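Researcher: Good morning. I'm working through a list of sequences from a screen, and I'd like to move beyond sequence-only analysis. For each chain I'm collecting a predicted structure so we can compare shapes side by side. This is the next one on the list. No need for commentary yet; just the structure.
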Amino acid sequence: MIAVAGLAVAGLALAGCAGGSSGDSTGDAGADAKPYVALISKGFQHQFWQAVKAGAEQAAEEFDVEVTFEGPDTEADVDQQIQMLQTALDKSPAAIGIAALDSQAVAPLLQQAQDADIPVIAFDSGVDSDIPLTTASTDNKAAAAEAAKHMADAVGHSGKVALVVHDQTSVTGRDRRDGFVEYLEKNEPDIEIVDIQYGGGDQAKSADLAKTIIAAHPDLKGIYGSNEGSAIGVVQAVKELGISPDQLVVIGFDSGKAQIDAINDGLMLGAITQNPVGIGYETVKAAVAAINGDTLPDTIDTGFYWYDKTNIDDPKIQAVLYE
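Model: Good morning. Structure tokens for this chain:
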């Protein structure tokens, strides 16, 4: 099990998170108004983002700021996210947080924020820009390497494996792909990666991709899904095809009830869980520091854990699972 930073905020109870998620206050709304921090996530369809939102609201209450938290309908809706970011900037917030679906597409708006002296905090996924003052996120390459290590052990250090990744446009998508691939290439010469497909984090599309991969490689020994939607899509494919967990190892990333159930039912070996409450909390905390003119580190590592049936009930794991 990997135990890393962020446990102090990981233990924040989601049910107890309340705060300023109403969002009409702006950065220049008057001397008596609370500072307004606009957060644009990658979506709302996964429980992960609800947990990030809960952490953000906890920090908003603690640091006495107003926050809004929104995201596009799916993690493939780059244009919708860009529009949300533009709308947020038009409200002149005191600071803005962005989890970019496409790190290149957001670049002009990040420049717009910088030109308007609006501090930018990246969260969950960094961007290809030096404009964000910091990035609050999991070390996704290290986390993906941990997933690859467990995959190698599970398949006996030989055979064919594949990846279903949520995207190749976000830093998160690339890091979770590259960390997994690079670990196997460096440490497991007898494991062959036969395919990498991109499902946009959509369960149905990821299930279809997994079925196609399995049909093309009937001797496949393992599939890695790089986020909640990808992993559950793979599990759904395996269930529909009636493949035994003894024949095909499934390893995921993130948490959520469906993955927890899949692990408890033996359909998924295990997964990496992030600290989503901590991501939300640290993003707002960093935004407040930026508003106050404080110096921030380049990155804020919010931590990760490997969890499976053997440790899923451990209190440290339970603190960072989200359902």
